[in-house]
Amino acid sequence: MRILGVGDAADLGALYLRLRDDEHEVKIHISDPMCHGTLAGLVERVNDWEVELPWIRAVGDDGLIVFENVADGRGRRQDQLRRDGFNVIGSSAYGAKLEHDRSYAQRILSGLGLSVPRVWDFTSPDEACRFVTERPARYVFKANGPEDPTYVGADARGEDIKALLTLKPPRTASFILMEAIDGVEMGVGAYFNGERFLLPACLDWEHKRFFPGGLGELTGEMGTVVTYARTNRFFDLTLRKMEPLLREEGYCGYINLNTIVNEAGVWPLEFTCRFGYPGFAILDPLQRTSWGDLFRTLIRRERERFETKPGFCVGVVITTPPFPYTRANIPEPIGFPVVFDPPLTPEEERHLHYGEVGLEAGVLVTSGIYGYPMVVTGIGETIAEARDAANALARKVRVPNARYRLDIGDRLIAGDYARVEALGFLDPD
After folding, report:
1. What is the pLDDT of residue 38?
2. What domain range includes position 71?
């Protein structure tokens, strides 16, 4: 196949490398100049992705465009390319609205019969502060767009939310406050081929806080536990209900719904309407079907299932400064060597998923803007086995100033997974 990847920072670098290793033709476009060193010397980079459209069209159904995100109108552009006859995997304008218009997404989910947390819309920080003063409680701040990070309030009076709104006003024109729900946070995701979901779906448990034990600021992601086993029941209760709407909108790509579950039920929080990072990399070891064959299945709609492995995969994100911020905000050098000690086996190398790295004078070095060199993964029949395998591999990575968490999956092992099972959200074992 011929694959053209379009993104800001090459977030799907590990996927492009897998496709390259399987002898597909791959070109990528990276729009952010600070990220141009990412995958340098590893995958061919193009300055103008639209110039490459004839290269894709020349091979007909074997040509594919993969979009990494939906910002800056790229959802609408994907829809237009599909109307022009191109195979596009990524998202859509509808996906962008689901992901970035928080209240709209909650209304859709409520209309499908799901219980949703209460949500209040605001365009003024002062107005939101007055609201919290009048209705003190724990709230979650979420921007309607990708510019501002989510903040989960911890104070029962909402004083931390008021301080956030006062000291650091949102950059987006509108935002929401969502009631805070306690329980086990878990997600459900699946690939959609434009008409129906490709099965099986996956379940995931993300670890977003910077430090072990769930301490520190929210990051993009520090690690995740995923599985394709025992997923049908929860999928049927949640994401599968979106199938008619996604079909109507011509969506094609991966979609994830994040939720909180507790004794009162399932509480959907938000959509990710694109490949999640590092989610796609952590799913990779459990997918027997290669990325190329999976993409063919999506665009040709030949099958309703793909091959997966049983058990769990744990992914650990190896980070370096300035993560969880960016070099646009905090100047940090790049170009540090990435080495492995002791040398890795071929099987261990399959569990490395490169992010912000490139070749410089033949040496693998850090690159990019986020401080996100790679994800390492481990698989096992149990979460503990998968965690231990991932941690053992992480210890072999030698990158100056590397930071990562060794407790990915610990809360699930200690009781959260058993709680989800007791609530009846998993298929019979």
Report:
1. 97
2. 2-98
3-state SS, residue 280: helix
Question: Alpha-carbon distance 318 to 375, whole Å?
Answer: 6
pTM for this model (two decimals)? 0.95
Bridge partners, residue 374, by sequence: 318, 354
**Interaxial angle between packed helices 159-167 and 125-134, expressed in degrees from 0 to 180 and rounded to the nearest 10:** 170
What CATH number should be reported for the domain holding residue 295?
3.30.470.20
Quick one: 273 and 388 in the same domain? yes
What CATH number has the domain bearing residue 162?
A: 3.30.1490.20
pLDDT lower than 50: segments of the chain: none
Q: Do 194 and 175 belong together in one domain?
A: no
Is residue 145 within 8 A of residue 172, CB to CB? The reply is yes
**Number of C-beta neighbours around residue 3 at 10 A:** 25
Residue 217 three-state SS: strand
Q: Which residues make beta-bridge pairs with 305?
A: 199
- pLDDT score for 173: 86
CA distances to 37, 177, 277 from 373, rounded to whole Å, are 12, 33, 12
In whole angstroms, what is the distance from residue 40 CA to residue 10 CA? 11
